[in-house]
Amino acid sequence: MMIHEITEKVGRHKKRKRVGRGPGSGTGKTAGRGHKGAGSRAGYSYRSGHEGGQMQFFRRIPKRGFSNILFRKDYAIVNLNALEAHFEDGAEVNADMLAKRGLIRSASQPVKILGQGDLTKKLTITAAKFSDTAQQKITAVGGQATVAS
């Protein structure tokens, strides 16, 4: 028996820490909150970035450059070798089918097909985007790559 086999059985369920249950528990008296200060008081909640009235760091430093985080489009990525393994010859592949087979998380996210791996099956694939190599490999075996709008 190896050490990782022991720990996966023993360490599976961690017991909840019961604080404030007497000195013998190790978390009695102050219940792990320490002495004095805001963190020891009832109703204390930590606000990220708050520096106690001092101008916060992210407001102090100058903002420069460009970020496209507000309007970039994230695609669920699927490679051809995954399609080869999960679909039969002549199958119709779309976002719903990919989500059902567990290749993507959600059918609502746009899908991009990439060309990693070989494709031997003739598939009809509908996706938001295709890489050039993926499109070439799909058409080479007689499949169809349709761009969904």
Structure description:
The protein has a domain at 76-147: Ribosomal Protein L15, Chain: K, domain 2, CATH 3.100.10.10. Helix content is 23%, strand content 13%. It contains five helices and six strands, in the order ααβαβαβββαβ. It has helices at 3-10, 57-60, 80-86, 95-100, 132-140, and strands spanning 76-79, 92-93, 111-114, 124-127, 129-130, 144-147. The strands form two sheets. Strands 1-3-5 form a three-stranded parallel sheet. A three-stranded parallel sheet has the order 2-4-6. The longest helix is centred in the C-terminal third of the chain and has 9 residues, at 132-140. The model has no long low-confidence stretch (mean pLDDT 91).
Largest sheet: 3 strands, parallel
User: Architecture of one domain, according to CATH?
Assistant: Ribosomal Protein L15, Chain: K, domain 2
Rg from alpha-carbon coordinates: 27 Å
Kindly report the average pLDDT value. 91
Portion in helices? 10-25%
Shape: elongated
- Estimate the strand proportion: 5-15%
- Per the CATH scheme, the topology name of one domain is Ribosomal Protein L15, Chain: K, domain 2
Q: How many strand elements?
A: 6
Q: Which class do the helix and strand fractions yield?
A: alpha/beta
Number of helices: 5
Strand order of the largest sheet: 1-3-5
Given as residue ranges, the uncertain stretches (5+ residues, pLDDT < 50) are none
CATH class bucket of one domain? Alpha Beta
**Which series of helices and strands comes N to C?**
HHEHEHEEEHE
Distance between the termini: 55 Å
